[in-house]
């Protein structure tokens, strides 16, 4: 199976409309080159361009949805179209990831559960999702996650319990914490004995330099492929069958102990 991670540069000089058209073209360019294409988090606005979230928020089936559905169909690929600022009909904003089939049909939408910013930014401007999302492809089951989710291992345990074998992370990760990005991607792969496909962005989001370095990690924690800092397409061949082989040969997941009682206080 081949995945193409499109490490998109998000810069202020390019309008959302122009970037949408450019990214659609990049997705179409992967026809015959990939089975699965992955885009970064909030590539329409930039993950740190907080003032654009409300201004550029779209309904779920808005212009980005339509453009990505068409691009997936024309390329004949499964498309994780990164995420968009979604405006729910009832008013709240969400950081919502979109997944499409090779026929351009919607396969899933995931509203980001862990919002970054503590007491500002995304954490206060967007509402939290509540549901874990997996998507069954012919070759593998994909677990969907977004950026800051990567710091919360329990989310990925939940995805594995729902059958996930390949964990996809769309991100807008800052350069100043790039070491964490690489470490956490490998940790999630090792502890879940799953592939991790982590697609970040390049450029600057409201002055925040992006880490880039999109990466694919195998179920044993080995890096299969890694991008540099700038905009590029990372194409990687991977074998989903290695997940079952790894879990059979080193069955650590079977030794999980759940529901431990809280310690007694003397």
UniProtKB/TrEMBL annotation:
Q: Which domain of life is it from?
A: Bacteria
What keyword terms does UniProt attach to this protein?
A: Hydrolase
Supply the CDD domains for this chain. nitrilase_5
Say if the entry is tagged with keyword Cytoplasm: no
Note the SUPFAM superfamilies from the entry: Carbon-nitrogen hydrolase
Q: Which GO terms describe its molecular function?
A: hydrolase activity
The record ties this protein, via PROSITE patterns, to: CN_HYDROLASE, UPF0012
**Occurrences of domain CN hydrolase (ranges):** 1-240
- Has keyword Protein transport? no
Which Pfam families does the record associate with it? Answer: CN_hydrolase
Name the InterPro entries for this protein. C-N_Hydrolase, C-N_Hydrolase_sf, UPF0012_CS
The entry's family comment says: Belongs to the carbon-nitrogen hydrolase superfamily. NIT1/NIT2 family.
PANTHER family named in the record: DEAMINATED GLUTATHIONE AMIDASE, NITRILASE-RELATED
Spell out the protein name for this chain.
Carbon-nitrogen family hydrolase
Instruction: List the top taxonomic levels of the source.
Output: Bacteria, Bacillati, Actinomycetota, Actinomycetes, Kitasatosporales
């Amino acid at each position: 199976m081949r995945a193409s991670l499109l490490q998109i540069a998000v810069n202020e000089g390019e309008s959302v409309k122009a970037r949408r058209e450019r990214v659609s073209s990049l997705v179409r360019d992967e026809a015959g080159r990939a089975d699965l294409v992955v885009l970064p988090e909030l590539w329409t606005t930039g993950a740190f361009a907080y003032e654009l979230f409300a201004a550029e928020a779209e309904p779920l089936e808005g212009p980005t949805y339509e453009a990505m559905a068409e691009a997936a169909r024309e390329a004949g690929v499964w498309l994780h179209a990164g995420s968009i600022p979604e405006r729910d009909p009832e008013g709240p904003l969400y950081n919502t990831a979109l997944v499409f089939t090779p026929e351009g049909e919607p396969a899933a939408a995931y509203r980001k559960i862990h919002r970054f910013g503590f007491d500002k930014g995304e954490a206060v401007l967007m509402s939290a999702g509540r549901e874990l999302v997996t998507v069954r492809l012919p070759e593998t089951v994909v677990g969907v996650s977004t950026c800051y989710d990567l710091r919360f291992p329990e989310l990925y345990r939940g995805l594995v319990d729902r059958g996930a074998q390949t964990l996809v992370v769309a991100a807008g990760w800052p350069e100043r914490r790039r070491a964490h990005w690489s470490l956490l991607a490998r940790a999630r792969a090792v502890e879940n004995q799953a592939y991790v496909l982590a697609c970040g962005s390049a450029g600057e989001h409201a002055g925040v330099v992006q880490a880039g370095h999109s990466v694919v990690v195998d179920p044993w924690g080995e890096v299969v492929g890694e991008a540099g800092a700038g905009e590029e397409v990372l194409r990687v061949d991977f074998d989903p069958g290695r997940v079952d082989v790894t879990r059979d040969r080193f069955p650590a997941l079977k030794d999980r102990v759940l529901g431990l009682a809280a310690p007694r206080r003397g």
